[in-house]
Amino acid sequence: MAFSSPYSLGRSNPSLIYILPMSQAKSVCESWFSTQKISNGLYLITEPHYYWFNRANLWLIKGQTQDLLIDTGLGVSSLRHYIASLIDKPLLAIASHIHFDHAGSLHEFEHRAIHEAEADALRTGDDYEALCAPKQGWVLQEHFDLLPYPEFTVEQYTMQATEPTHILQEGDVLDLGNRAFEVLHLPGHSPGCIALYDPQSKDLFSGDVIYDGELLDQLHCSHIPTYIATYERLQKLPIGGVYPGHYSIFGQERYEQIIVEYLEAKRKPGCPAVAPP
Ligand SMILES: [Zn+2]
Ligand SMILES: [Zn+2]
User: Fold this and answer.
1) How far does the centroid of ligand 1 lie from the alpha carbon of residue 270, in Å?
2) How far apart are the CA of 59 and the centre of ligand 2, in A?
């Protein structure tokens, strides 16, 4: 097999080039993450060198007495170090659910929380529940435009086991001093999906429960009748802004449309949703 020369690629820094078969030759990125300030006290962190379809939105909310991180990304680069300069208070890191694109870096944080339905999967580093077991085919080398570090390969990728320090349940309140969030347990995409809702602003940090893109309800961990029940519940929730686990922020109108479209599609006769369990 032919090997590429680091110099033939015309890069200015040969130390960033690793000699691999031509099809795999990739550079190491200088910064794995990128940050966008959305408003005072709210930052969106993403992993721009990773496949857009699975690239999660990681939300950092700065409170008066406590900071909150909603979702932690793939865990292929240190998120804790990356956000250190933004943190000046105790930080609670939360996974909206166990999937690898959300919970990958949770182990790095001193205070880490997940819903009780997926606490065991986190505790044991369950790659199957995290959707990152190799045979599931969700984590592929071609999904990385650049490498997070020189030796990175998807074969070694795994959900790192860690004991949650906080177990979340429906109705829990996370008080940041100047604002507070209620934990909503919203299964369907996976059994331990949560969203965080601010009843004052009516903002919803929705994880993979609702976003403006293809919803995944046919995973091994998904359950369409449960997803329908979750959407029937969400239909009654007053909404300001939605800060989803993927894609763009949206408002009440789009929120209502997504719910109606989903319910109309899935309630059709003959759909699994109306079949007996
Ligand atoms: Zn997910
Ligand atoms: Zn996701």
Assistant:
1) 26
2) 13
Ligand 2 centroid from CA 14, angstroms: 35
DSSP characters over the chain? --B--GGGGT-S-GGGB---BGGG--BBPS-S-EEEEEETTEEEEE-TTB-GGGPPPEEEEE-SS-EEEE----SSS-HHHHHGGG--S-EEEE-SSS-HHHHTTGGGSSSEEEEGGGHHHHHHT-TTTTT-SGGG--S-GGGBSSBSSTT--GGG--PPP---SEEE-TT-EEE-SS-EEEEEE--SSSTT-EEEEETTTTEEEEETTS-SS-----STT--HHHHHHHHHHHTTS--SEEEESSS--EEHHHHHHHHHHHHHHHTSTTSGGGS--
**Residue 14 Cα to ligand 1 middle (Å):** 37
CA dist 262 and 189 (Å) reads 13
Ligand 1 center to 222 CA (angstroms): 9
Task: Map out the domains of the chain with their CATH numbers.
Answer: 30-266 (3.60.15.10)
The model's pTM: 0.89
Per-10-residue mean pLDDT, the chain, length 277: 33 44 73 97 97 96 98 98 97 98 98 98 98 96 95 96 98 98 98 98 98 97 97 98 98 98 86 50
Report CA(107)–ligand 2 centroid distance (Å): 18
Q: What is the C-alpha to C-alpha distance for residues 43 and 213, in angstroms, rounded to an integer?
A: 21
